[in-house]
Structures are given as structure tokens and as C-alpha cells.
Amino acid sequence: MALSIATNTGALMAAASASSVNKDMETSMERLSTGKRINSASDDAAGVAIASRLTAEIRGTNQAVRNAQDAQGLIDTAEGAHKEVENILQRMRELAVQASTDTNDTSDRTSLASEMTALTAEIDRIANATSWAGQELLDGATPNASNTTENDTASFTFHIGARATAADSINVNIDAIGSTALGIDGAGNVPDAMTDLTTATNGSVLTTNQSAGTLAFASGTAVAGDNYSVKINGSTVSITVAADEFELNEIGVAEQMKDAIDAANISGVAVSRTGGTLTLNVGGGVDISSSGNAQTAIGTIDAALTTLNSQRAELGAVSNRLNNTVSNLTNVAINLEGGRGRIEDADFAAESTSLAKSQILQQASTAMLAQANASKQNVLSLLQG
Q1: Are residues 181 and 58 in the same domain?
Q2: In a domain, 244, yes or no
Q3: Given a cut of 60, is residue 148 above it in pLDDT?
Q4: Whole-model pTM?
Q5: 245: burial class by Cβ within 10 Å (0-12, 13-18, 19+)?
Q6: Are both 162 and 196 inside the same structural domain?
Q7: Domain co-membership, 176 together with 103
Q8: Is 116 a residue whose pLDDT tops 80?
Q9: pLDDT range class, residue 145, cuts 50, 70, 90
């Protein structure tokens, strides 16, 4: 091998080794200081993409947990109001039972009716005042809408997952619980929707008056075979005129229609007949001015309790479901965190070992670089005489 000084191969190799070792040492120091194995896409291109997707799922799942807990709080708030309304209805039923016996005179029943009226007003106050973060829950209004009809249902959609799928949402309907919705408001209210669907070929004609809540048969005579139908709150009731115990005139047909509507039991709609006119109403109140009326009121309140308890059962079921939802989402988030950690977290034992190795090699390569540079000084001895 020629002895030269222009190209110091040993020094170049030692310098290259020192540079490589220094890069490895910096990588180990970066991982140990951040705790992450992947600090840039160059560390693991595929791992960066996977970790990013896992991060999106983790953050979405954690937010879904909060969504579910908020939904549970909303539902529990509504159910708590239901519980208090039930207590009020139980007291109202007690008053109706008390008023149904004739040991009470008119003044006694008047006193009982005063409390009944106050309790009814409190039910309406609870229905209108119960809210969650500004959203009224029990007045029948759909959230963020102008609908405030007391017979309607508020509809809520809760997103309880990290994905944009229908499976990650649940819909909950909370019915209005005001006195009108429960049928104890003390005044007849017309059904929400009533339309005439008459298909009679001749004879009298059935007409509706929505604002008055009435069905009326125009003058004329009903003919056997005529069909009369009406849609009330989405339910269709119909009769076909036949030669039976009723006379074939509008009064007899009205009686048949009344019987048919009563038998349909359409969401508490009650119907009365005056001649050929039927009057429909929702509710009817809790009149306890007489023994007979008080006994009727007991049945009305029982129906209200049945409606209320059915709604409470539905809300309770959803609240229990959300308990399981929160538990499952929490478990999912934990497992996702573990999966992401295995991909991007640094192994401190391995990185500490790698750092120690790099430091020793750096010292060795530096020493060899110094030796390689010093070795060329021997050439000077050839130039000395």
C-alpha cells in the first residue's frame, strides 16, 4: 500500500463512523426525551398513519363517553320530574277517593277541589319548567324548534359513538306530561288532527270541524251500504251503514260512529253525541263535585298514572342502557390507548441500551479519528535528512 498524505482513508472511515454513530445517539436521545418511538414520519411511515387513526378513535370515543353521560343526565332529570308528577297524581287520586263518599257535603268537596286545582297547576308548572341546559324536556316541544304543543313529544338524538353511523346514535322520545297530555286538565280539548274521509255514495254527508272538534252529519238520510270514515290523530275509524236496530238516518249513524270511536280508544279521545253531531275531546279533567264525578275522576287519574309510568319505564330503560354504553366505551378507549402505545411509545430499556452503545462507539470512533490523523505524521520523517 502506498504511503501518502493526500487521502487519509482511515480518517475518512473513522469520521463516517462517528457521524453515523452520532445520528443513532441523537435518535435514541430524542426517543428517551419524548417517550415516543415515532417522532416523525421517517421513523415509521405506516406506524404514523395507524397511530393517527387510533388517535381519532380514542378522542372520538372519549367524547362519546361524555355524550352518553350528558344524555343520562338529561334523561334522569326528566325521569326525576316524572317521579314528582307521580307523587302529585297519587295525592290527587287520594282526594278523588275521599270526595267519592257522601260523608262529604258540597263545601267539603269544594275544599277538596281547591287542592285538586292547585295540584293540577303544579303539574303544568313542572312540565313547563323542567329543562336541561336550557332545553325544555316535558312540554312536548322538539328541541330547537318552535313547537310547544302540550300533547306532543320531544325527540332527542344522542350520539354515543366515535363513528358517523346510525348504530352510534340513539333516539329518545320524551312525551309531554302537562295536565292536557295526561287528560286531567279539567277542560275538553280537541284532538290534534281530524280529517273527513267519507266515501258514502249517497245520503247524508259527514263533515268535520277541526277547531270545534266536531263531526256532523248533514241533512239527509243515510243509505244502507254507505261508508263513513274519519281520521283522528292518525287513526282511521269507519262504519258501514246496515239495516239494524238503528234507524237509517243521521242520528242513528252518528250513534254507530260514536260507538266505533269509543271502541278504537284513540289516545284518550272521548266522544259525546247530540243529535247528529259528535263532539270529540282529549282530557276531560278531574271533577270531584259529586260522588259520581269523583269516582269517574279516579279512573281518569288511573289512566294518567298508567301513561306516566309507561314513560318512566322507557326512560329508565334508556338510562340503564347508557350505563352499559359508558362502561363499554370506557373499555374500548382503554384498549385503543394500549394499541396506540404499542405502536408509537418508546421502549426505554431498548433505547437506553442503544444510547449507551452509541456513546461508547462515538468515543471509540473519535479516538480512531485522532489516531488516523496522527498516523500521517510519520511521512515527515522521510523528509528529514
Answers
A1: yes
A2: yes
A3: no
A4: 0.62
A5: exposed
A6: no
A7: yes
A8: yes
A9: very low
